[in-house]
Amino acid sequence: MTPLSGDYGADVVVFSEKGNALIQCKTSMYSLEDAKMVLEPYNARPEYEARFHKEFPKLIFCTNALHVGNKVREKVKKYGIDIWTAKEMGRLLDISTVHYEDLLRWESAERLSLDS
Q1: DSSP character for 38?
Q2: Distance (Å, rounded) from C-alpha 9 to C-alpha 43?
Q3: Model-level pTM greater than 0.70?
């Protein structure tokens, strides 16, 4: 995970042989209508690619919002960003095994340093 602030628009950085990814997470009690907000992982990509000398082809915007507005859906499609809503995250959790101990270990792990 990235620092709590100054993360350039990515909360999670994934390094994988299947393809690196940047994930931005936002909570919302209502519907997600802010189309600018979903561009954060797209805008973060140049910074992370320059820092780590790696490509980040996968961009994900993750939200617990139950509804995503049409403008937001158009924006993520245009910029190649996947959007994971509460429904999608529930589906992913249904097909994945996640142990509470793993969550605690990940939460307490050292965060990625982005200092220049």
Answers
A1: G
A2: 7
A3: yes
Q: Around 37, how many Cα atoms within 13 Å sit in the side-chain half-sphere?
A: 18
Distance CA 10, CA 25 (A): 8
Domain residue limits at 52: 12-108
Please state the domain count of the chain. 1
| Residue range 35-69, pLDDT digits in tens | 888 999 999 999 999 999 999 999 999 998 888 99
In a domain, 4, yes or no: no
- Which tens digit of pLDDT belongs to each residue from 89-109? 889 889 988 888 877 877 777
* Residue 52: inside a domain: yes
**pLDDT of res. 24:** 92
Q: How far apart are CA 41 and CA 10, in angstroms?
A: 6
CB 51 within 8 A of CB 88: no
